[in-house]
Amino acid sequence: MIEARHLSKVYKARKGDRTAVDDISFSVGEGEFFSFLGPNGAGKTTTIQMMVALLKPTKGTITIDSLDVVASPHEVRQRIGIIFQDPSLDDRLTAWENLEFHGRLYGIDAESRRTRGNFLLEVLGLADRKDDLVRTFSGGMKRRLEIARGLLHAPRLLILDEPTLGLDPHSRRSVWEHIHRVRKEVGMTVFLTTHYLEEADSSDRVAIINGGKIVAEGTPDRLKKDLSSEMLTLETNTPEKVVTYLLESYPKLSGMIRKEEEIVSFPMPSGEALSPWDLLRALPFPIREASVRRPNLDDVFIHYTGSELKGQTSEKGVRP
Ligand SMILES: Nc1ncnc2c1ncn2[C@@H]1O[C@H](COP(=O)(O)OP(=O)(O)OP(=O)(O)O)[C@@H](O)[C@H]1O
Ligand SMILES: [Mg+2]
Hints:
Helix content: 25-40%
Shape: elongated
Number of helices: 10
Number of domains: 2
CATH topology of the largest domain: Rossmann fold
CATH superfamily of the largest domain: P-loop containing nucleotide triphosphate hydrolases
Distance between the termini: 38 Å
Mean pLDDT: 90
CATH class of the largest domain: Alpha Beta
Strand content: 25-35%
Strand order of the largest sheet: 6-7-8-3-9-10
Bound molecules: adenosine-5'-triphosphate, magnesium ion
Low-confidence stretches: 307-317
Order of helices and strands: EEEHEEHEHHHEHEEEHEHEEHEHE
C-alpha cells in the first residue's frame, strides 16, 4: 500500500538547510496497521506530507497503491483519508455540512454522500449530533468527525497524525474504539503517528524515526523482546551510586539506564546468566523498592530515541 524508498526532505531555512527526513525506506502492506513513532521534530508530519503530495521529496520516491505520489497526486489523494495533526473542521458549520463540503470537494455523488455519510456518523457515534454546529462538540467528538470526514470518499489508506492529541483518557479510548470499529467494518490500511505509545501497541508493525532516520522497525512484540525480557526498576536513596555501579559492572547497560529522581530503571543485561534477584543481591547499596516487569513500547522508544529526546545525556551513559 505504501512504499517509500530513500525518501529525504530538506527544508531551506535562513540559517542553512534542515534535513527533516533523511533517506528513509519503509513499506506498509495492504490492510496493515502501521505506527510511525518518534519524538517532536523527528520528521513524522513531514513524511506524511510527502505521502499525501503536499510536499515534494527532496530525494527518493514514495508510492501509494503502486502510484507514484509526485506523478499522480490526484489519484493518490483519492485513495487516502487523512486526519491532520492540526484540527481542520469548520466550527461554524454543522457536522453534516462539514461532511457535505468534503464530499463535494472529492466529487462524491449525492446519494453516496448521504448513505456513506450516515453510515460513518453511525459507526463513529455521532448520528444524533449530525445537525449540531461543530462549535458545540467536545474535542473527542471533533476528532471522530474528522475521521468520518476522512473516510467519506472510501479511501483504502487512513493516515492519522496524532489523532488523540490533547484528549482526555476517556475521549482517547472512545476515539480508538471507533477507529477499531471502522477498521473492522470497512477494512483498510492505517498509518498512525502518536505520542501515546500504548495506542501503537496493537499495531501490526512499528517504525521509530529519530532525527529524520528510521532507527528501529518491527512488530511491537519483537521490538520489546529485542530490548530485553525484563525491565528492572529500583528505588534508592543513592541513585547516582547505583547507576555508576551498574555501568561498571555491566558495561552493556551503557545508554540504557534511566534515572528519574530516586528511581533507576534498566533492562536486565542480556547474555548474562543473571536473574534480577542475583543482581539485586549483589548491589552494595540499600534499595527501598524493586520491581520487575516486561518491557513496553515506552521502554523501546526511550531506548532508541532517549538521548535525543532532551538534546543530550545528563551523565555519561545515563538517559535523563
Ligand atoms: N515548513 C517547514 N520549514 C522548515 N522546517 C520545518 C518545516 N516543517 C517542519 N520543519 C522542521 O522539520 C523537522 C521535522 O518536523 P516534523 O513536523 O516533520 O516533525 P514531527 O515528527 O511531526 O514532530 P511532532 O511530533 O512535534 O509533530 C523539525 O526540525 C521541524 O522544525
Ligand atoms: Mg507532527
